[in-house]
Write a structure and sequence with these properties.
alpha+beta; Immunoglobulin-like; five-stranded antiparallel beta sheet; four-stranded antiparallel beta sheet; about 20% helix; binds copper (II) ion; Putative secreted protein; signal; transmembrane helix
């Protein structure tokens, strides 16, 4: 009987060992529960809304508002929130102050919602989904097998009875539990509650949640109100997106790099640069209020990404009239270190930027580099590696205008520079 006792002890130890990692692993079976960060540019400044994930419903949905100097919304500024369920139309309202605490909006169910954010007279509507993690059936089998193993081992030890049947049962249950634990990376996770039906269907069919074909490119048109903006005066730049196939508004933009749309506005000569995040004001309509200091031609480059599709660049141009004014937020030039020192068209170049202090992520990355050809026909957006270097390929010979952007000490820094590609 001694060998049974020994086996039981080994089994108990093994059970405790595998039980230990089983707990934390269960917590992140699916992406549901992750926080959503959406950056929006209001006329008064930019704000990042942080919507915390929930692990079950009903629950309070926590919303915070963060802003960066110098172009962020004033700290303490009150933003009105309205959360509407698209499933049953129910609404709740709340208030959040920029940089302080947060609001807790009660949600009753998973699924599609719209968060309306009001700053002064401006409002943005952010569509999103409340996702609730769901356990896959096999995780219940695994957990059940662990439980049975534990009960048999502990019960056997407490009762002081060791039988072949007990050891056999515990061994079998333990084997199932361990097998499922080891197979976990290869088993399908459960689709979260509240996920989009298309994604759910893809998951059921065993396919990747991203559709193979994707959706058609959006047709984008820029316009300004007034039609001829004047230097120093606020105007609205609007981007209307329609589906090329159906002509209907494109209202399925995915939040990528913490915004549904990234907009770069540059003066033709590159002296003025704005990187802002359009507000969704109606289905397929995105707009932002701007104030520009110099007259002349401006270029607009918007980065968008439809759900289940790739990224897309939408471009446009507009004219500003009036007298030249001093730039409100002058940007100090960067002196980058290039490798190779003389970049070659079509070959990678690494650009290193000296930074003032430790970097904080901005839009999910340590740093951003935007590069535009002089004529504006080419625009690239590269992401930086730690402290702070970018690698990219410039397509042709010529002069490029570049802007590096990063956050340090709670401040967004923009550093312009130029790149010459001679061969
Ligand atoms: Cu952006």
């Amino acid at each position: 009987m001694k060998w049974i006792n020994g086996r039981l002890r080994v089994l108990g130890a093994a059970f405790l060992l595998v039980l230990w990692p089983a707990g934390p692993a269960r917590a992140h079976v699916v992406e549901a529960g992750a926080e959503l960060r959406v950056t929006q540019t209001f006329g008064a400044g930019e704000v990042t809304l942080v919507v915390a994930g929930v692990s079950s419903v009903p629950a309070p949905l926590r919303v915070r508002a963060q802003a960066l100097r110098p172009a962020g919304l004033e700290l303490g500024l009150e933003l009105g929130l309205e959360l509407r369920s698209l499933a049953d139309g129910s609404r709740v309202t709340g208030v959040v102050r920029v940089g302080q605490g947060g609001a807790a909006l009660p949600v009753g169910q998973a699924g599609p919602y719209e968060l309306r954010v009001r700053a002064g007279e401006e409002a943005a509507v952010i569509p999103f989904r409340v996702l609730v993690p769901v356990s896959a059936p096999w995780t219940m089998v695994r957990d059940g097998a662990f439980l049975v193993t534990g009960l048999l081992v502990v019960g056997g030890v407490l009762a002081g009875r060791r039988s072949g049947l007990l050891v056999g049962g515990a061994s079998a249950a333990g084997a199932v539990a361990v097998a499922l634990l080891l197979l976990a990376p290869y088993l399908p996770p459960a689709w979260p509650d509240g996920a989009a039906p298309a994604a759910e269907a893809a998951q059921r069919d065993g396919a990747a949640p991203v559709a193979e074909a994707g959706r058609p490119y959006a047709q984008g048109r820029f316009s300004t109100l007034p039609a001829r903006p004047v230097t120093g005066a606020e105007f609205t730049l609007t981007l209307r997106l329609t589906d090329g196939a159906t002509g209907r508004p494109v209202d399925d933009l995915a939040v990528h790099h913490e915004a549904p749309a990234h907009l770069v506005v540059t003066s033709q000569d590159g002296a003025v640069f704005r990187h802002v995040h359009l507000l969704r004001t109606a289905p397929g309509v995105l707009s932002v209020r701007l104030r520009l200091p110099r007259p002349g031609r401006y270029l607009a480059h918007a980065e968008i990404e439809r759900q289940d599709s790739g990224g897309q660049l939408v471009t446009g141009a507009f004219e500003v009239t009036g007298a030249a004014l001093p730039e409100t937020a002058p940007q100090e030039n960067a002196t980058p270190r290039l490798t190779p020192a003389a970049p070659v068209a079509g070959s990678p170049v690494t650009i290193q930027i000296g930074v003032e202090g430790p970097l904080q992520p901005w839009l999910g990355m340590p740093g951003h580099l935007i590069v535009r050809s002089e004529d504006g026909a080419y625009l690239a957006h590269a992401h930086g590696a730690a402290a702070l270097s970018f690698t990219l390929v410039l397509p042709d010979r010529g002069r490029y205008l570049a802007w590096a952007q990063y956050v340090t000490g709670g401040r967004l820094v923009t550093r312009p520079f130029t790149l010459e590609v001679d061969r």
